[in-house]
Amino acid sequence: MSKEIQETSFREFVALMALLISLTALSIDTMLPALPLIGADLGATGDNTKQYIVGFLFLGFTFGQMFYGPMSDSFGRKHSIYIGITIFICGSIISMIAQNFSIMLMGRLLQGLGVAAPRVISTAMIRDKYKGRDMARVMSFIMSIFILVPAIAPTLGQAILMVSNWRMIFAVLLCIALIIMVWVYFRLPETLPQAKRLPFNLTTIKQGVREVIKHRITFGYTICTGLIFAMLIGYLTSAQQIFQEYYNAADMFPLYFGVIALSLGVASLLNSHLVKRIGMHRICHYSLLAMIVISGIFAALFLSSAQQVPLWQFVTYAMTTFFFLGLLFGNLNAIAMEPMGHIAGVASATIGVISSALSLALGTIIGQLYSGTPLPVILGFLVLSSATFLLQLWLNKA
User: What share of the chain in percent tops pLDDT 70?
Assistant: First the structure.
């Protein structure tokens, strides 16, 4: 069937890749307004326990990536996407009917295992068609669309809660997954021809993983990607508590969350125009430097004001910091993938597993350190951006 599909337009390809990538964010951000209700209904104890509803999806996502990359290199991109979305649908059903917190976490783990497929395979498909600065440009266009999801997803979750209960959120996610599967089936050509497919065996996978780990630039920028995404996970796991508990702004949480997320989208769109002229490395360098300065200044302000900064100041800080995050996401991943075009599936999976495991570990620590103020998030941004900046300086040396 895929051989008979005509090549999609650039706009449709970007839109579909953005939707595939955004399913992860949609599965997280739609939940955020419902976390207190889910925790209360399913008996989650402890102030930070409900954060695991986010964390377990990331856990499944982290380890799921390793399977789909090699699978897509051997059996094609589209068939592997179908398998992943099917697992995601099963996880959505389990989460929707869960009667206790343990079953909810099992469903979220399955959702994460499933959603890893569209995330990692879409990156491989983009690399099949583009490379270098062209890939970074395409990734920036995709990110500019993708970022609309975290901008509107909490509002979608809040709207569902106004007319139904939190279980309906999982029903909506299930329907979206079905729509994606149908769109992929009818409109997306297979990007990996039969002649370029690799045999599916442990030797091939080991060789691919070894090549990624031994390649200085690829592995180094994989670590950079993990450090940057750790900031995002730390923020995501703490955002509901920061806005609804610390700032007592539960009703306005979707608005503030969306405004901050939009700054990521603006930056990603801007990056698509800048990367051709300035280059990926310089954009990353100056973005990290800006994040260090901004986070350092705000941390000092926060501590000097007895940890009582107004909401508008925190939102301004978050928007500014997330703007520079938006300049980093597509570029760091493109730099890491650039030398790996010949094993794009395995490389994308390996990069994804390593960076996600690192970001999950560090982001969870930041989230669990929440004790009533945004300080752990602010210091997390400062420390991680500084570490990434130093690592990039080392990698860019001869």
Answer: 98
The overall average pLDDT reported for the chain is: 88
Nearest Cα to 160, choosing from 148, 175, 172, 150? 172
What's the CA gap between 27 and 39, in Å, rounded?
A: 17
pLDDT reported for residue 1 = 41
pLDDT in tens, 57-81: 989 998 888 888 788 888 889 999 9
Report how far residue 95's alpha carbon sits from residue 102's, in angstroms, rounded to the nearest whole number: 10
Residue 303 CA to residue 29 CA, distance in Å, equals: 29
Burial zone of 289 (CB within 10 Å; 0-12 exposed, 13-18 middle, 19+ buried) = middle
Q: Where are the beta strands (DSSP E) in the chain?
A: none
From the CB of residue 201, how many other CB atoms can be counted at a distance below 10 Å?
11
- For residues 82 and 126, give the distance between their C-alpha atoms in angstroms, rounded to a whole number: 18
What structural domains does the chain harbor?
2-187+208-395 (1.20.1250.20)
Asked if 173 and 49 touch (Cβ cutoff 8 Å), the reply is no
- Residue linked to tokens 């040396």: 397
* Collapsed DSSP state (helix, strand, coil) of residue 193: coil
Contact between residue 24 and residue 121 where contact means Cβ atoms under 8 Å apart: no
SS3 labels along 12-42: HHHHHHHHHHHHHHHHHHCCHHHHHHHHHHC
Q: How many CB atoms lie within 10 A of CB 158?
A: 18
Sign for the pseudo-dihedral over CA of 190, 192, 195, 201: negative
User: Tokens 């964390």 map to which residue?
Assistant: 55
Query: Residue type at 348?
Result: S
User: For the chain, which ranges sit under pLDDT 50?
Assistant: 1-3
| CA separation for the pair 30, 318 (Å, rounded) | 20
d(CA 301, CA 299): 5
d(CA 301, CA 317) in angstroms, rounded, equals: 11
- Predicted confidence at residue 389, as pLDDT, reads 96
Is the sign of the CA dihedral 350, 352, 356, 358 positive or negative?
positive
Residues 381, 233 contacting (CB under 8 angstroms)? no
Count CA atoms closer than 13 A to 171's CA, side-chain side: 8
pLDDT of 186 = 92
**pLDDT tens, 303-331?**
998 778 899 999 999 999 999 998 887 78
Contact 166, 101 (CB under 8 A): no
Cα 286 versus chain centre, distance: 22
